[in-house]
Specification:
This protein is α+β, with helices and mostly antiparallel strands and 331 residues long. Helices cover 34% and strands 34% of the residues. A 5-stranded mixed barrel has the order 6-7-8-10-9, surrounded by 5 helices. It has a 3-stranded antiparallel β-sheet with strand order 1-3-4. A hairpin with a 5-residue loop joins strand 3 and strand 4. Helix 2 crosses helix 3 and helix 4 crosses helix 6. The radius of gyration is 34 Å and the shape is elongated.
Length: 331
């Protein structure tokens, strides 16, 4: 009697390359840009990114019964001799089991393993070049500006915001600053809005390195509304990891004796545009960035993965994370 179990090579290959987590390590993914993950894996792997993985298991059993009979055969007038007869009966059964796996989240681990093992990941933003893979660790802030846009369209709420702003700045009702603030509301309500991500990197003891980005609603594993209601503005804790592509550096305006009011990169670019109508659109884009876009003191990144490691640990003293963040105000 013989029996055995076989496993399809495809499943074994999938398990080998899927980036099995470290012992006692589980990742909680908050964000995955599935299309970008797939585009990178398609370049790393020979046959492209996997959409599904099929595994087949088989268990077989064979039973064999063999019998033999011997005797003497005599032919009186010719010759004498002996003969044997064999009888074999075989019974074989086989059970098959087929499994189909969705490699979506395994793909995230696979990409992470590829860029880490290939030394493609830069952890210091100040040393990274534009277009490189970067990793930022720290606290994150996720704000959905769609809510702001809908609120500002309400006349009563808008009036309240303007009054609160005037009170906090000590502005009179007819001050130019208050008029500019009120006019900006009109512009903000007409601009396209999305979900903004800010990452606060605490790895540098002397300064708080910040990165800014927009993220897509479809790539979040939780809604921005849920995150806002649970955490408010900042998802506290320094354990969040953002893997992305660096695509913008801080563009500081550094006055000098020769140029006390230097132009920004946006202003220089607008001056180079020959078409007047396009120049108007470019000026509006620059204003929109100043109002609701990336601050000039921050790096710009395109996030691919946002996650944290889920593990047992001791809770930090109450308010420690808040104290770290509050002592280093964002620019």
């Amino acid at each position: 009697m013989t029996s055995g179990a076989t496993q399809a090579n495809e499943e074994a290959d999938f398990e080998e390359l899927s980036g099995a987590p470290k012992e006692n390590s589980v990742y909680d993914f908050l964000y995955q840009d599935v299309r970008r993950v797939g585009s990178f894996l398609a370049q790393f792997e020979e046959y492209g990114v996997r959409q599904a993985v099929k595994a087949t298991e088989s268990v077989g059993q064979t039973s064999t019964l063999k019998g033999a009979a011997m005797g003497t055969l005599g032919l009186p007038t010719v010759m004498g001799g002996s003969a044997s007869v064999d009888s074999t009966v075989a019974d074989e059964t086989k059970d098959l089991a087929e499994h189909t796996f969705d490699p979506l989240w395994a793909n995230a681990r696979r990409l992470l393993d590829y860029i880490e093992s290939g030394d493609h990941l830069e952890t210091d933003l100040w040393e990274a070049t534009i277009g490189s893979f970067v990793e930022i660790k720290g606290s994150i802030s996720i704000v959905d500006l769609h809510y702001v846009q809908s609120i500002l369209k309400n006349a009563n709420l808008r009036r309240t915001f303007v009054e609160q702003f005037a009170k906090s700045k000590g502005l009179g009702k007819n001050s130019q600053s208050l008029k500019d603030f009120n006019n900006n509301f009109d512009l903000i309500t007409s601009l396209p809005h999305g979900i903004q991500l800010t990452v606060y990197d605490h790895s540098d003891d002397e300064s708080l390195v910040q990165a800014w980005s927009t993220i897509s609603h479809e790539s979040l594993t939780a809604t921005a509304a849920d995150l806002m209601l649970k955490h408010g503005v900042v998802l506290r804790g320094h354990s969040w990891r953002v893997i992305g592509i660096l695509d913008a550096l801080p563009d500081f305006r550094i006055p000098s004796a020769e140029d006390p009011e230097p132009k920004t990169l946006d202003e220089i670019a607008v001056d180079m545009i020959p078409n007047d109508f396009v120049k108007i659109a470019a000026n509006l884009a620059a204003v929109a960035r100043d109002l609701i876009g990336r601050p000039r003191t921050m790096f710009g990144v395109t996030p691919i993965l946002i996650f944290r490691e889920v593990k047992k640990g001791n809770r930090s003293p109450a308010g420690a994370a808040d104290a770290d963040l509050s002592t280093q105000q964002p620019g």
